[in-house]
Amino acid sequence: MSKTRIALLGTGPWAEHTHAPAIAAHSGIEFSGIWGRRPEPAAALAAAHGTTAYAGEADLDALFAVSDAVAFALPPDIQAPLAVRAAAAGCHLIMDKPVATTVADARAVADAAAAAGVASVVFCTLRFAADTAVWIDEQAAKGGWFTAHAYWLGGLFAPGRTSPFADSPWRREKGGLWDVGPHALSALIPLLGDVTEVTAVRSEPDLTHLVLRHVSGAASTAALSLSAPHASAGTGLELRGEHGTAQLPEGWGDPVASFGTAIDALLESVRTGEPHPCDVRFGLRLTEILAEAEAEAEAEAEARTAPRPKSAG
């Protein structure tokens, strides 16, 4: 049988350091090409991994035509409409999180995938990194959890920090809620069930606190930021329930290996026809929750800063 042909859209640091190496190293697929908005970065990354470069609007359909699946390493509001096009061309999808930053765009992707009958995976790292994926499955199987607390406190925009990801306009605009919030939710939902109620409070420069009620009856909290002081940055998730406590393992392993596992998950979904738990429909649900949290936080901030009426006395 011929190998599944997978293309990559995107040439930024995430594509360079994770997606492209994982696709190139995977023995079960063919790397069908790399697309970028500008030809020079696409050519450089394609040459580094022995595949073909595509660039600009005109080349997208040509790349879709020689591919069975498309992986995305693009800002969410760019990847969403391109994913709709890829699905319409019959390509399976490996998308980055969040799928989109509006519910309408995320729903368009989910609807396009369903209409075309293509498989999909959303690369929520915790669900594919070896240690954390096993831990989530084990704790979900136990059940009986009373509450959970998650914190994803990144220092990407903290003073004195330098990172290529800090040049990302969408991360500066949307902050930790949208960038690291999907990580927290991707673990909390399989552990405690879908979210039925959201309360959100935001403080400057970029710290969002969530209180979530889950369908299981449990409640959880999450603290999310990309601007934590360097000395306080870190991630964690603690569960408490009838089994005592359980903590998410530290370290997420090699992201290249994790993305390889995501590729395996897509191939298995294609083979069996069974949707993966972390597919674009799950990505849509994450966007719905994050959009609700964003609206809640904005409403709370407006109420807090609104002028108070003077007393009648």
Ranges with pLDDT <50 over ≥5 residues?
A: none
Strand content: 15-25%
Q: Please, what is the average pLDDT?
A: 94
Sheet with most strands: strand arrangement: 3-2-1-4-5-6
Largest sheet: 6 strands, parallel
What is the name of the CATH topology of the largest domain? Answer: Rossmann fold
Say how many strands there are.
12
Structural domain count: 2
The H/E string reads: EHEHEHEHEHEHEHHEEEEEHH
Query: What is the CA-CA span between the terminal residues?
Result: 84 Å
The CATH first-level class of the largest domain comes to Alpha Beta
How large is the radius of gyration? Answer: 20 Å
Which range best describes the helical content: under 10%, 10-25%, 25-40%, 40-55%, 55-70% or over 70%? 40-55%
Structural class: alpha/beta
User: Which architecture of the largest domain would the CATH scheme give at its second level?
Assistant: 3-Layer(aba) Sandwich
Total of helices: 10
> CATH superfamily name of the largest domain?
NAD(P)-binding Rossmann-like Domain
Oligomer: single chain
Tell me, what's the shape? globular
